[in-house]
Amino acid sequence: MDTEDINPKAYPLADAALTKTILDLVQQAANYKQLRKGANEATKTLNRGISELIILSADAEPIEILLHLPLLCEDKNVPYVFVKSKQALGRACGVSRPVIAASITVKEGSQLKPQIDNLRSNIEKLLV
User: Does the model's pTM come out above 0.90?
Assistant: First the structure.
């Protein structure tokens, strides 16, 4: 997948290193049952105020199907980030299908909290 194929609307886009960190965290979140997959589920977690972080895939076709999420994230003050590949996001979510959006959810006493906070601050740096 070339950079040329990436939709300019997919902003902020994580670079390779950050993508790896994000996908690792998604994988852990899936193990800890702190993950919701799909644009609809991600929307629900935002509306319910239980989302820590939204991960979107830049190669969703058409990308408009998930562009309501960044607006909602900004509304709810939840960081969001794009990764290049829905296939990779799907794999990290532990499913064989491509996943265009995922939400890492809030959980009391979660062991992932430090990683989530660390990632949030990295994503906030992208937006500056």
Answer: yes
